[in-house]
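Possible regression after last week's pipeline update?

I re-ran a chain I had predicted before the update to compare outputs. Posting the input and the new output here so someone can diff against the archived version. Not blocking, just want to make sure nothing changed silently.
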Amino acid sequence: MSDTIATIRKITNGFIICANDPAIQKANKDPKKPYRNSSVEYTFDTFEKVLKWLKEQKDNLVPEPDSTAEYANSFDEATATEK
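New output (post-update):
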């Protein structure tokens, strides 16, 4: 699992923050709903606005889900012999 909760990129006229939307991640756990990419981008024209947004959102930011965790033991389970 990645510990990254957001990335900041410098662009010509400002900054882009890429973060995961917790509401989309929650909806992705429902097998009846279609999967959506939870990565969203926010643009800001000054670094001060980036910092303000990060301070406001710090409790809402969540790491990217580990898509391999569900299958971590799959090989062992598939090759285990029943006793």
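Follow-up from reviewer: compared with the archived run. Helices lie at 22-28, 47-57, 74-79. Marking as no regression found.
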